[in-house]
Q: What sequence folds into this?
């Protein structure tokens, strides 16, 4: 695409540097959004998008789109997701990377929702894409998550919003995903999100240094509108 800076004439330049797709996202601002099933990751991401214009990429939605396409790969994924298990790491990572590249030119930053699900997923992401500047940890009680997902299941049409699979997803979250939070805490980039009822005067915000918002609360706690 471009020519090296030492070359004054692109037509005669024999050593053209072709910017790979990877280059498009190598300096991207990346925020991981982690929380249990039904904790409200998607809901909070929409608020951040509305306020700050980040690009929201839900790994679960990307996987469901592949299932909906009816592809062979989608059929394999559906079987895994219906059981509440994790899909192969490379599959979800490739999908996220492709989606990031597709939006790279217009994106101010990426909210990667529902990823990483396990420490290994985070490590591979960093090897293939880059490091996150922040991890938003959406905390919610187990019983709250179950209640919400059972309610959502009445209309969502999601094959995994049933009692048996919800239990498995929750177990897997505690076993595999909570260690992710500890892993990134040691780097000092975790911001725990506490959901409070929407009251005038509260706002949903990230770190003021990150996005110019107002940080409310102590110890880097992020307060966003939500409720039990
Ligand atoms: N009462 C209440 N419900 C909420 C809140 N946030 C989200 N919900 C509902 O809880 C359900 C789950 O919210 P999502 O935003 O889809 O949660 P998620 O963590 O993205 O869930 P997955 O898509 O399963 O990963 C939805 O039906 C939401 O409408 C909240 O603060 N209070
Ligand atoms: N990074 C990811 C994201 C989702 N998955 C699989 C496993 C999850 O149960 C399903 C649905 O993910 P989604 O984030 O939409 O939903 P939950 O947080 O599980 O409620 O997809 C995965 O294996 N790896």
A:
């Amino acid at each position: 695409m471009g020519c090296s800076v030492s070359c004054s004439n692109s037509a005669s330049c024999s050593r053209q540097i072709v910017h790979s797709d990877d280059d498009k996202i190598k300096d991207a601002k990346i925020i991981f959004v982690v929380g249990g099933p039904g904790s409200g990751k998607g809901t909070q991401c929409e608020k951040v998008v509305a306020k700050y214009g980040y690009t929201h990429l839900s790994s679960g939605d990307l996987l469901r789109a592949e299932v909906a396409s009816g592809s062979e790969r989608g059929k394999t994924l559906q079987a895994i997701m219906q059981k509440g298990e994790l899909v192969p790491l490379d599959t979800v990572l490739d999908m996220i990377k492709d989606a990031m590249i597709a939006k790279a030119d217009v994106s101010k930053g990426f909210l990667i929702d529902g990823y990483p699900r396990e420490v290994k997923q985070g490590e591979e992401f960093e090897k293939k894409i880059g490091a996150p500047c922040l991890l938003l940890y959406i905390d919610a009680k187990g019983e709250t998550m179950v209640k919400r997902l059972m309610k959502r299941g009445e209309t969502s049409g999601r094959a995994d919003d049933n009692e048996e699979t919800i239990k498995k997803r929750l177990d897997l979250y505690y076993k595999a995903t909570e260690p992710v939070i500890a892993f990134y805490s040691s780097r000092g980039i975790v911001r725990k999100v506490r959901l409070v009822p929407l009251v005038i005067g509260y706002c949903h915000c990230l770190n003021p240094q990150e996005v110019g918002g107002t940080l409310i609360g102590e110890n880097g706690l992020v307060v966003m509108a939500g409720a039990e």
User: Anything to note?
Assistant: The first helix runs from residue 21 to 25. The pocket of deoxycytidine diphosphate (ligand 2) is lined by residues 37-38, 59-60, 63, 81, 84, 86-87, 92, 114-115, 117, 121, 160, 169 (CB under 6 Å). The domain at 22-196 is CATH 3.40.50.300 (Rossmann fold).
